[in-house]
């Protein structure tokens, strides 16, 4: 089993995926433990001073004006966790919760949050034990971070609330901690706030979506090439020199992938045969332009994710050393407060989820358009007036058999939903906390709908694969490309049936979806083409 070591300088997307999906073990580096201890010294020094410090000795949000005495501060931290664990709706997926907790741990280990090393270690212990706190679908506005989702995780660290054990059984969190020898955390100054003030949920879902879309965008290059082939289209539009004069890198990569899949095909170039056509339809001819634009959107989203992975998101944050600008010095009344040695605790707005929310919504737009163009290719393959000699709906005995008519209905329904999901969540904002938090990102909502979009895109691509594979096999007397033959053969072995009389399609479509989603489609192709871009 892989071990991920968390230090003060951040983690990688690969680390997040290893923990969230692969169950990797987590260790805290010596540097992280030192950074945690150093920042805690600053918080302890400030807690001992008479002046109020936000998050240390005050209330929160619109209640930040109240100075909290030492005797109530532990209760204050417990109360913020309990009161903010107010989510509702279905439980979110285990991998989302694990990513959420791991990314919060990443920020704690930066040394900018002021929690004790034992708090960070407790998160690592819970993840290593396979304990997954219950987090609900609704409760985050994406500003002050993913407050309710993170609060439910913090509640479990305190031994309260519910969690799933390694076997998936829902139990009391305190019982699960005891069973695995983990002591519930007794929170001190600032620690409750530090556990729930970050963009970790939306960032974790962005990272997982990017990983899934990497597979799906390469897969759609394969299915688009197979559709072009089945429609007897021309591969001349994929020539590198044509894409070099419009130098978008994603477009060039997509065209190169399609060209690699079509190498050696006996079906391409027949557009001048029985029913001559000068050009293929846009859904075929412009496939690299549309998929390529999505690839470039993914590249931008990945850049944002990498920046966020290197960030320390909390409010307030602990800044060591030189006071710098913006503080007030000891005894001051502004947003900054200084401890011994010049370290300070400073309020900030880095918890706002806008950078992540925007790219989550941008990806949903790209996904909807990719699904749309794939559906148009499928429809063309099923229409006898536009498929250049294929039987209606690829039916065995049209009229008696309906063929893939309703498979396209399902695909169309998915695409219609993709278009609805493309409406940006981040264009909305709703005030909260008595107008103190008067502008929010809705990044959690953007991430949740993107997960649905990615799932639906896999199904849309699966229907195109199913249709194109059948259409290629119906082109008797013409030999498809070696890569196409490899895909068709592997799909058949995976339970994706070929041409023939009508039968129950749902199981075969599910097999096609799994074939796309788990990467077997790409494995089959790349045995012939080598790695796709």
Count of helix runs: 19
Distance between the termini: 29 Å
Largest sheet: 3 strands, antiparallel
Mean pLDDT: 93
Supply Rg: 27 Å
Q: Which percent range fits the helix content?
A: 40-55%
- Percent of residues in beta strands: 5-15%
Number of strands: 10
Overall form: elongated
The helix-and-strand class reads mainly alpha
Low-confidence stretches: 323-335
Compressed to H and E, one letter per element, the order equals EHEHHEHHEEHEEHHHHHHHEEEHHHHHH
Strand order of the largest sheet: 4-6-7
Task: Give an overview in words.
InterPro entries: Aromatic_Lyase (IPR001106), Fumarase/histidase_N (IPR024083), HutH (IPR005921), L-Aspartase-like (IPR008948), Phe/His_NH3-lyase_AS (IPR022313). This is Histidine ammonia-lyase. The protein is mostly helical and 533 residues long. The chain is built from 19 helices and ten strands. The protein has a three-stranded antiparallel sheet. The protein has a three-stranded antiparallel sheet with strand order 8-10-9, covered by helices on one side. Helix 13 packs antiparallel against helix 14 and helix 14 runs antiparallel to helix 15 (405-421). The longest helix has 32 residues, at 443-474. It is elongated and about 90 Å long.
Write the layout of secondary structure elements.
Elements: E1 3-6, H1 13-20, E2 25-28, H2 30-47, H3 73-84, E3 88-91, H4 94-108, H5 117-128, E4 132-133, E5 136-138, H6 147-157, E6 162-164, E7 170-172, H7 173-179, H8 191-194, H9 200-230, H10 240-244, H11 249-262, H12 282-285, H13 287-309, E8 317-319, E9 336-338, E10 344-346, H14 354-382, H15 405-421, H16 443-474, H17 482-493, H18 506-517, H19 520-529
Parallel strand pairs: 1-2
Antiparallel strand pairs: 3-5, 4-6, 6-7, 8-10, 9-10
Helix pairs in contact: 1-4, 3-6, 4-5, 4-9, 9-11, 9-13, 9-14, 9-16, 11-13, 13-14, 14-15, 14-16, 15-16, 16-18, 17-19
């Amino acid at each position: 089993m892989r071990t991920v070591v968390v230090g003060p300088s951040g983690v990688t997307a690969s680390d997040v995926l290893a923990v969230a999906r692969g169950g990797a073990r987590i260790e805290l580096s010596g540097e992280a433990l030192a950074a945690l201890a150093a920042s805690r010294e600053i918080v302890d020094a400030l807690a001992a001073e008479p002046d109020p410090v936000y998050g240390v000795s005050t209330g929160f949000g619109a209640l930040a004006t109240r100075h909290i005495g030492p005797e109530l501060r532990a209760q204050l931290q417990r109360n913020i966790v309990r009161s903010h664990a107010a989510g509702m709706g279905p439980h979110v997926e285990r991998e989302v919760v694990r990513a959420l907790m791991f990314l919060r741990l990443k920020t704690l280990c930066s040394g900018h949050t002021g929690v004790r090393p034992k708090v960070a270690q407790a998160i690592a212990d819970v993840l290593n034990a396979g304990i997954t706190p219950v987090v609900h679908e609704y409760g985050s506005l994406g500003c002050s971070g993913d407050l309710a989702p993170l609060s439910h995780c913090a509640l479990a660290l305190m031994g309260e609330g519910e969690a799933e054990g390694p076997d998936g059984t829902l139990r009391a969190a305190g019982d699960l901690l005891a069973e695995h020898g983990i002591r519930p955390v007794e929170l001190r100054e600032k620690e409750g706030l530090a556990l729930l003030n970050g963009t970790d949920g939306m960032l974790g879902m962005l990272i997982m979506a990017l990983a899934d879309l990497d597979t799906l965008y390469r897969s759609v290059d394969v299915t688009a090439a197979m559709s072009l082939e089945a429609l007897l289209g021309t591969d001349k539009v994929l020539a590198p020199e044509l894409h070099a004069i419009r130098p978008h890198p994603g477009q060039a990569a997509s065209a190169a992938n399609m060209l690699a899949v079509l190498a050696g095909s006996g079906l391409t170039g027949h557009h001048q045969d029985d029913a001559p056509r000068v050009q293929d339809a846009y859904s075929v001819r412009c496939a690299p332009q549309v998929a390529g634009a999505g690839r470039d959107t993914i590249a931008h989203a990945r850049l944002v994710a990498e920046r966020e992975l290197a960030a320390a998101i909390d409010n307030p944050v602990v800044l060591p050393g030189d006071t710098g600008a913006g503080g007030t010095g000891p005894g001051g009344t502004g947003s900054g407060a200084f401890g011994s040695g010049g370290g300070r605790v400073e309020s900030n707005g880095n918890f706002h989820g806008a950078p992540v929310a925007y790219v989550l919504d941008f990806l949903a737009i790209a996904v909807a358009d990719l699904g749309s163009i794939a559906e148009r290719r499928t429809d063309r393959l099923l229409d006898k007036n536009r498929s250049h000699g294929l039987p209606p709906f690829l039916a065995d005995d049209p009229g008696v058999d309906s063929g893939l008519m309703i498979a396209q209905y399902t695909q169309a329904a998915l695409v219609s939903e993709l278009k609805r999901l493309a409406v940006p969540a981040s264009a909305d904002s709703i005030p909260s906390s008595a107008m103190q938090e008067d502008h929010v990102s809705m990044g959690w909502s953007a991430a949740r709908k993107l997960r649905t979009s990615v799932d639906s895109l896999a199904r849309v691509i699966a229907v195109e694969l199913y249709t194109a594979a059948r259409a290629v096999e119906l082109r008797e007397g013409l030999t498809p490309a070696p890569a196409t033959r490899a895909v068709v053969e592997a799909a058949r072995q995976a339970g994706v049936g070929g041409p023939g009389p009508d039968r129950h399609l749902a199981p075969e479509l599910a097999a096609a979806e799994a074939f796309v989603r788990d990467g077997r489609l790409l494995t089959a192709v790349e045995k012939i083409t080598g790695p796709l871009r």
